[in-house]
Every structure is written in structure tokens, then in C-alpha cells.
Amino acid sequence: MIYMEKIGVFGGTFNPVHNGHLEVIKAAKEQLKLDHVLLIPTFQPPHKQARHLAPPEDRLAMCRLAVKDMPYVQVSNLEICREGKSYTYETLEILKGQYPQSQFHFLMGSDMFFTVQDWRNSERIAQYAVICCMAREKGELFRLQEHAKRLMLLGFQSFVLEVRPFPVSSTKIRTNIKKFNNLLHYVPKSVLEYIYVRGLYALPQGKTFYDLRP
Ligand code: ATP
């Protein structure tokens, strides 16, 4: 029997990457017995208004710093090099071409899991990957399991990771960026230092990063 390599695919804005993201990767690696994980920052997220979006090369660099002690994670510039809106079905199609013998597990938090059936060409996402989700807040597990049943009727295979949630968001990091010490629990130190050195997210009220660029 041919062994099918199991690859976790984790896409997101990662603006910035935080420990909640790393918890998803660790839980998925362990519970799904993944061989490796591709961490793929989007160029432009199709589903949400990305306010205060740091340049793609900075988000990529922060992802690389965050996983430097996780040898089974590779940071991919696939979506950043493609530019434009980063649609998941397109990314999975490209990856399928690159790794024809592999089985993909697309990793996501609960907010994304509840909407994945509405993403562009979601039937192709269902064709290419098992959807694996993790609660972001306490008490979400039951709703996730119920949603997994609904997704099954729509042709998706899904898996709910059972772990204690790590409630943090990139928004929370960006809005509290001046509180270095408080953030150390939520963001790898190397990432936080990078943010400070590059002056990311420290914006006057109402300005975006791009307003400040020469
Ligand atoms: P923002 O606050 O800017 O909207 P975010 O924290 O939701 O950002 P994203 O980069 O948009 O981070 O998320 C990428 C993926 O990681 C999504 O599938 C999201 O649901 C998931 N995710 C983010 N934070 C967590 C968390 N704390 N626990 C579990 N999953 C998470």
C-alpha cells in the first residue's frame, strides 16, 4: 500500500502571527499525525477588511520567526507571490499539483469553520482537503461538532480538534501593541521584537500603515 503523506495547510492573514495560531498547528500535528504543515500568509484576505495590514514581506518574516523551532512547519510564499485576493480553492489546486500523492488537511479556527461552505468554489475545497477546526473560545465545541455534521451533508470531510482554546486574536495584539510585557504570553518574543524594530502597528488614530509610508 502506498503511504499518503499528510500535510496540514494553514492559511491566514497572520497580521501578526500569534500563539493562538501556533496552538492550532501543534494540536493538528499531534492529533492528526501530520507529516508537515505549510503556513501560508495571504496576500489579501478575500473574506475580511484587512485594516492595518502590515506588508506581506513583514508578515512572512514574522511567520518564519514564529516557527523557527518547529522543524515540521514550512512557511510558504505561494499566496504572497500570486498577489491579488488569496482564494483557498486556488491555493489547494496549486498544492495538489505540487504534492499529487499527499492528503491535505486545511486548518482553521471556529470563525472560519462556520463560514467555509460559503467560500468561493467551496465544493473544490471539499474535494481537495479535510477541514480541521479548533475552538477559539470556551464552550464552542458543541456548535463546532454540530456544524461538522452539516458540512458532511454538503460533501465536506471535517475534523474537530479537541483542545483547550487559546483566546487571542491579531486584532487584540495590534490594538495593545504598546504593552510589550503583557503581550509576551500571546506572541513569540522574536515576533514582538520584529514588530518593534520595524515599527509595525504603532499607528496614530485613524491612519493605516500605508498612510505613513513615504
Ligand atoms: P484578526 O484579529 O486580524 O482578524 P486572527 O487572529 O483571526 O486575525 P488570522 O490570521 O485571520 O488571525 O487567522 C488565521 C486562521 O487562524 C483562521 O483560521 C483563524 O480562525 C485561526 N485562528 C486565529 N486565532 C486563533 C485562535 N486563538 N485559536 C484558534 N484559531 C485561531
Q: Tell me about the biggest sheet?
A: 6 strands, parallel
Element order: H for helix, E for strand: EHEHEHHEHHEHEHHHH
C-alpha termini separation: 58 Å
Bound molecules: adenosine-5'-triphosphate
Strand order of the largest sheet: 3-2-1-4-5-6
Quaternary assembly: single chain
Principal-axis shape equals: globular
Which class best fits the helix and strand makeup? alpha/beta
* Extended strand count: 6
Task: Please give a handful of descriptors for the protein shown.
alpha/beta; 11 helices; binds adenosine-5'-triphosphate
What does this structure look like?
The protein is an alpha/beta fold and 214 residues long. The chain has eleven helices and six strands. The protein has helices at 19-32, 56-66, 78-82, 88-98, 110-113, 122-128, 141-153, 170-175, 180-183, 189-198, 209-212; strands at residues 5-12, 36-41, 73-75, 102-109, 129-134, 158-161. A six-stranded parallel beta sheet has the order 3-2-1-4-5-6. Helix 2 runs antiparallel to helix 10 (189-198). The protein is globular. The structure holds adenosine-5'-triphosphate (ATP). Adenosine-5'-triphosphate is lined by residues 12-15, 20-21, 24, 108-109, 111-112, 134, 136, 166-171.
